[in-house]
Design a protein that fits this description.
- The complex is a heterotrimer of chains A (161), B (790) and C (261).
- Chain A has five helices and five strands, in the order E-E-H-E-E-E-H-H-H-H.
- Helix content of chain A is 29%, strand content 16%.
- A five-stranded mixed beta sheet of chain A has the order 2-1-5-3-4, sandwiched between helices.
- Chain B has 790 residues and is α+β, with helices and mostly antiparallel strands.
- Chain B contains 19 helices and 28 strands.
- In chain B, strands 3-5-1-12-9-10-11 form a seven-stranded mixed beta sheet.
- The longest helix of chain B is centred in the last third of the chain and has 28 residues.
- Chain B is globular, with a radius of gyration of 27 Å.
- In chain C, the strands form three sheets. Chain C has a five-stranded antiparallel beta sheet. A four-stranded antiparallel beta sheet of chain C has the order 9-10-11-12, sandwiched between helices. A three-stranded parallel beta sheet of chain C has the order 1-3-2, covered by helices on one side.
- Chain C is globular.
- Classes of the chains: A alpha+beta (161), B alpha+beta (790), C alpha+beta (261).
- Chains in contact: A-B, A-C, B-C.
- The interface between A and C is medium-sized, with 30 and 28 residues.
Chain lengths: 161, 790, 261
């Protein structure tokens, strides 16, 4: 066992891990942050996306020891300081961008990474960027709307309904 | 304009707060003190005889707490089929035992034969690798034609022909239907496959068993759409635990789509293991296990025929289907290809004669059961594909042919030739709406634009009706169901006026916590924020039959309305007492009880408080408290209907199909929350497009699953889909439930696949490839290319 | 997965030393290796992470050659190679998805040599040189068939030198589930010479379509390959496409790559 320390959502944390402990397990079992979900075992579904030193990663495919000393941000770190929904989270609620909620943490984290890189993405850019996050509930329509809304773009005219 | 908070408002969902902040509580998020971790050993062969399982070395591994195998469950019962289906000759279906863990034989790749429990998950997995199972591989029976043709190879030794049942619906009409075909001016025939799908809720299955040796109580946390049924099946059929000693809790559940309706052996295994080690036992499926062991969906091979006159008036329809059951009968497996398929084969049409034959077949593959739509997508696909082919053969306009054959509004209630009574509908109205919102009149201009890009554009339609709101107990009882399909609700008004509603429905994405509160707010005139919805815990809820078959709102929601009617009646009694008036003179509106013709009134809150502070109640005639329970059993199925249009662009060089647009005009009856209804349609259509273009479970000839991960099973992703155009303004309210609602959960998945396939065939025909009359789903680039160039 | 000892050296020399241990295996981005280990198909005793070696990361241009460090993630190549070698940057930006591109590296991709991976097409198609801790290997000598390369045990890909072509493009047709290449073609033109590298199609992994190279060298236009066809022998046949389909796609995508370059 090795003690691994990192900064998660602004807090220093340390957990004893084995070599095989994944970052997703470190967060879920070690730190108790169960908002990061694991939906597959092939690095495909994206439910486990967190930010590692500012870039999105699939935490089920990174070993905890490889993230030693890093700065990690998870879904639990996305709300405003007063605990209210942050702007991306709020857009997902306003536009019904989630149903069962299981893929949602990864979607929100990927969205945050997208908007950091491309503050006003087109619909096609949003769809392309999110192709590593699988949602079985929404058909993506309202997720795309939520992302565009979070980027400050009008969504009313684009979706006839 | 939408109102704020009541029926008809697009209220944002309250449950989103926890899901968006990482505070959801899914089964895998729950950790009980002292829990052991379980993993399952699963068969690597499709058909095999278990000669022995040696756990000696594994038991000696570090941290191992217990290992149970199929032998430990021999004395227990089997997981039963929920529906009894008779053969055409009246004899009963074949019903093999489905044990908790395989014993004697393994019957599909992924069939679990042992559970290993250890202090940590990694220790459990390390020990599992040390279990020595001596299994002799037998020839695998993979496809249905082989299963029927080679009865010497058997999935179950005692079932000689691998056939579960051979069902005719309605058998008495068979001769008349055949006679109509013999004399029909035109017969269109189509052979098609309804591809096998894997549901793939994003949360894998998970269960925690927790036996309390102090009380003898069992508690099961599990990923279920249907906790009461799971309790009933475990208690009454599998483990013989008294029902009152077993609590089943389905906490936040990350999607179901049918796959989590059923009881699975892993649930009983973790309970038994917990009892064995006197500690909680937790199991979370890996995705690869889900692919192998969740109930799959669809998997029909069908020959369908439609007889008509030369003007396209339908005279008769008949179909023959082989339906794959997989290796065992999952709980709803026998109902899905029969009463959820055969009974809707009339579609929205007045075809006078319909006959459906379904032969259900065992194979060495994962069990197949209801997946979003369950039987109705299979029926709709067959009907709408053969209608489309008929229009091409007779060179008729597919819109005009559909209009001419629709049941007209004045014909309702309409008795179909396959045993249902449609209460209401207006199929012409939804089709007209579709023509408008889909801008079908300007298709040719769009086709020219597409041609400029070197691609082929096509337009496909689907008009459909389904039967859901499952279901009237008397009807399904007559059809072979072994359970009732009512639902229950308790409305508890607390002393301070806020309300807890205990519902038998289970929300795993549907938004019940928001929508049911809207309904209560509307009916009781209280703020929605004062209403809490409690679901998913058998210890808190009177009873329930869970959420599937678009039944939550129309059945469980109606139970809430009935319970609220009792609350209002009780409130009137209390008000009459408080206001010193006759009970018959009390009116209730907008949250206020008043005496007719006076300005004397009491608020809902005052009545609630009084109910719990009954200082001067006439106790002989008025009980304290304000809590009511209702069990609601519907009078009929509900019959949502719709008209869908899909436009595709086909790249003739690569065969790649892109969805250019998709429009839906639906009739869901009364709509409670338009935002949520639209979301249900989006999700359903995405799954239907997935079936049509992307998804298929494939086994090789040895019964190995070739699509056992997201590397090979194609899930629809954001860049596979367009924005959808949806409308539900043409609604004919359901006539028999108090909400006038029909249900919307399955519609998109039911109506969309034929629209997509019809659109691709249309695109190919417009480009002159008129020899292509059909391509089986999924219409992958390779398949479309092969049709064009092959 | 099996347990192992995790080592994270900060220099190539230390990594090479660590890899000399019995059962040691290098870990680059882990986007393929970690899932493989979960299935217990790979069971290293020591896992040597290359992600802490700063000398292995980065993209730079010198003398008409773009050099990419072996542990440079795809996302970095997509961003930093854009102004030097747009076709390479676009290829890197189309691998997997954004989270995969944050971790996956060029060295990991080349060491694995998945027959459907993107990078081998760029390396072979542009005639790049694979740099290791021991030597330089020409692209034409590096790829030895599906999941097989010229690398020795314990040898690390430290970088790749790409000569920058006059014109180049990569056109990928996705396998719809994995988003690897069902078939993809990298075309590069250097003066009068043309290289065409194909990935995703052949059971032997990435290969050069020399008939197309000759035709395009004579006439660099999509129409130049109209008369060619590729035999389907040896093409991958699976759920996602028949061998004949893949053979046909090679030609379609080559034409599109030429047009896009």
């Amino acid at each position: 066992m090795t003690k691994v320390s990192m900064t998660v959502n602004g807090k220093a944390v340390s957990v004893e891990v084995e070599g095989r402990t994944l970052l997703s397990s470190f967060l879920r079992e070690g730190v108790g942050l169960t908002g990061t979900h694991v939906g597959c075992d092939t690095s495909q579904c994206g439910a486990c996306v967190v930010h590692l030193d500012g870039v999105p990663v699939k935490s089920c495919s990174v070993f905890a020891e490889d993230a030693a000393g890093a700065t990690v941000r998870t879904i639990e770190g996305m709300a405003n300081a007063d605990g209210s929904l942050g702007p991306i989270q709020q857009a997902f609620q306003d536009h019904h961008g989630l149903k069962c909620g299981f893929c949602t943490p990864g979607m929100v984290m990927s969205t945050a990474a997208l908007l950091a890189e491309n503050p006003r993405p087109s619909e096609a850019e949003v769809r392309h960027y999110l192709n590593g996050n699988i949602c079985r509930c929404t058909g993506y329509h309202n997720i795309v709307k939520a992302v565009l809304a979070a980027s400050g773009q009008a969504t009313a005219s684009m979706a006839a309904e | 304009m939408p109102k704020d908070g009541g029926i008809g408002a697009s209220t944002v969902r309250r449950e989103d707060i926890r899901f968006l902040t990482g505070k959801g509580r899914y089964t895998a998020d729950i950790n009980l003190r002292g829990q052991g971790y379980a993993c399952f050993l699963r068969s690597e062969v499709a058909n095999g005889r278990i000669n022995g399982i040696d756990t000696t070395a594994a038991m000696a591994m570090p941290g191992v707490l217990t290992i149970l195998t199929g032998a430990d469950f021999v004395a227990m019962g089997g997981n039963p089929a929920g529906w009894f289906i008779p053969n055409r000759d009246g004899t009963p279906m074949k019903e093999p035992k489905r044990p908790v863990l395989a014993h004697g034989k393994v019957r599909h790749v992924g069939d679990a034969y042992a559970i290993v429990v250890a202090e940590t998950l990694d220790q459990a997995r390390d020990a599992a690798a040390a279990v020595e199972a001596d299994i002799t591989e037998l020839p695998a029976i993979v496809n249905m034609a082989d299963a029927v043709a080679n009865p010497a190879n058997r999935v179950h030794d005692e079932i000689a022909d691998n056939v579960c049942f051979d069902w005719g619906w309605i058998e008495a009409n068979r001769a008349a239907v055949d006679a109509a075909f013999d004399t029909a001016p035109h017969v269109t025939t189509l052979e098609l496959v309804n591809n096998r799908l894997i549901p793939n809720a994003m949360e894998t299955r998970a269960s925690i068993g927790d036996f309390d040796s102090g009380t003898g109580d069992y508690k099961l946390y599990t990923t279920s759409q249907n906790p009461h049924l799971t309790r009933l099946l475990i208690a009454a059929f599998v483990m013989a635990i008294p029902e009152n000693k077993l609590t089943v809790i389905a906490p936040d559940v990350g999607g179901g789509f049918g796959s989590k309706i059923y009881h699975y052996g892993e649930e009983a295994a973790v309970l038994a293991a917990s009892k064995a080690i006197n500690r909680p036992v937790k199991w979370v499926a890996e995705r690869s296990e889900s692919f192998l062991s969740d109930a799959h969906g669809r998997d029909h091979v069908t020959k369908i025929q439609l007889a008509s006159d030369l003007q396209g008036n339908f005279l008769a329809l008949r179909s023959e289907t082989l339906a794959n059951m997989g290796a065992y009968l999952s709980n709803f497996s026998t109902a899905t290809p029969t009463f959820l398929h055969g009974t809707v084969m009339a579609g929205p049409y007045k075809t006078p004669l319909v006959y459906v034959n379904v032969k259900a077949v065992f194979t060495n593959t994962a069990p197949v059961d209801a997946y979003r739509g369950a039987g109705r997508p299979e029926a709709t696909y067959s009907i709408e594909r053969v209608v489309d082919k008929l229009c091409r053969e007779l060179n008729l306009d597919p819109i005009a042919v559909r209009r001419a054959n629709f049941i007209s509004p004045e014909q309702f209630p309409y008795t179909t030739p396959v045993g249902l009574v449609y209460d209401t509908g207006n199929y012409k109205a939804t089709l007209d709406k579709l023509v408008q919102i889909g801008k079908l009149g300007s298709f040719e201009a769009r086709a020219k634009e597409t041609a400029r890009k070197g691609k082929l554009r096509g337009l496909g339609l689907s008009t459909w009706v389904e039967a859901c709101g499952i279901a009237p107990s008397n009807l399904v009882g007559a059809l072979g169901a072994r359970v009732g399909l009512f639902d229950a609700a308790t409305v508890r008004v607390n002393a301070t006026g806020n309300i807890s509603v205990m519902t038998g429905a289970h929300s795993h994405g549907q938004g019940h916590e928001t929508v049911f509160a809207q309904i209560v707010a509307e009916h009781l005139g209280v703020p929605a924020s004062s209403v809490d919805i409690v679901h998913g815990d058998t210890s808190k809820i009177p009873f329930g039959m869970g959420s599937y078959g678009s039944r939550s709102l129309v059945v469980a929601g109606s139970a809430i309305v009935r319970a609220m009617e009792k609350i209002v009646a009780k409130g009137k009694k209390i008000a009459a007492h408080m206001l010193e008036a006759g009970e018959g003179d009390i009116l209730f509106a907008d949250g206020t009880f008043s005496v007719s013709g006076t300005n004397r009134s009491k608020t809902f809150g005052e009545i609630a408080f009084s109910a719990y502070v009954p200082h001067n109640y006439p106790l002989a005639t008025l009980e304290p408290g304000l809590e009511e329970t209702s069990f609601y059993d519907p009078g009929n199925f509900t019959y949502p209907a719709g008209a869908y249009a899909c436009e595709v662009e086909v790249d003739p060089e690569t065969g790649r199909v892109e969805i250019a647009s998709f429009a839906c005009a639906d009739d869901f009856g009364n709509v409670m929350n338009p935002m949520i209804v639209n979301g249900q349609v989006h999700g359903g259509v995405a799954q239907g497009i997935g079936q049509a273009l992307l998804e298929a479970a494939a086994y090789d000839e040895n019964g190995q699953l070739l699509t056992g991960s997201y590397m090979d099973y194609t899930m629809p992703r954001a860049d596979d889909l367009p924005m959808f155009t949806v409308d539900h303004s043409c609604n004919t309210p359901c006539t028999h439930n108090p909400l006038g609602a029909k249900g919307c959960g399955e519609a998109g998945a039911i109506g969309s696949p034929p629209a997509v396939v019809n659109a691709v065939i249309d695109a190919l025909h417009r480009a002159g490839h008129t020899h292509i009359t059909h391509i089986d789903m999924p219409l992958t680039p390779s398949r479309v290319w092969s049709a064009i160039h092959g | 997965m099996h347990n192992f000892e995790f080592v994270k050296p900060s220099s190539v020399a230390d990594a090479v030393k660590a890899l000399a241990a019995a059962g040691a295996q290098p870990l680059s981005g882990g986007q393929t290796l970690v899932p493989t280990m979960k299935q217990r198909l790979a069971m290293p005793g020591v896992l040597v992470s290359l992600s802490g070696i700063s000398e292995l990361r980065g993209v730079c241009l010198a003398d008409g050659v773009v050099s990419v460090g072996g542990a440079t993630p795809h996302a970095v190549v997509a961003r930093e190679a854009a102004k030097y070698f747009p076709a390479l940057a676009a290829l890197a930006g189309g691998i997997g998805d954004p989270a995969v591109r944050s971790r996956g590296t060029i060295g990991g991709s080349l060491a694995n040599n998945d027959p459907s991976a993107c990078y081998p097409a760029a390396v072979l198609g542009s005639g790049a040189t694979v740099l290791t801790n021991k030597r330089k290997i020409a692209a034409d000598d590096y790829f030895k068939g599906m999941f097989t390369t010229a690398l020795d045990e314990g040898e690390i890909v430290t970088g790749v030198d790409f000569p920058v072509p006059d014109k180049a493009a990569y056109v990928k047709f996705d396998q719809p589930a994995s988003r690897f290449a069902l078939c993809a073609v990298f075309v590069a033109k250097f003066g009068s010479k043309v290289r065409v590298a194909v990935t995703g199609a052949s059971g032997d992994g990435v290969f050069r379509w020399k008939a197309a190279e000759a035709a395009l060298a004579a006439n660099y236009a999509a129409s130049a390959i109209a008369g060619l066809s590729l035999p389907s022998d040896g093409m991958i046949a699976d759920l996602h496409g028949t061998a004949a389909y893949r053979a046909a796609m090679v030609k379609v995508l080559t034409g599109r790559a030429v047009a896009a370059s």
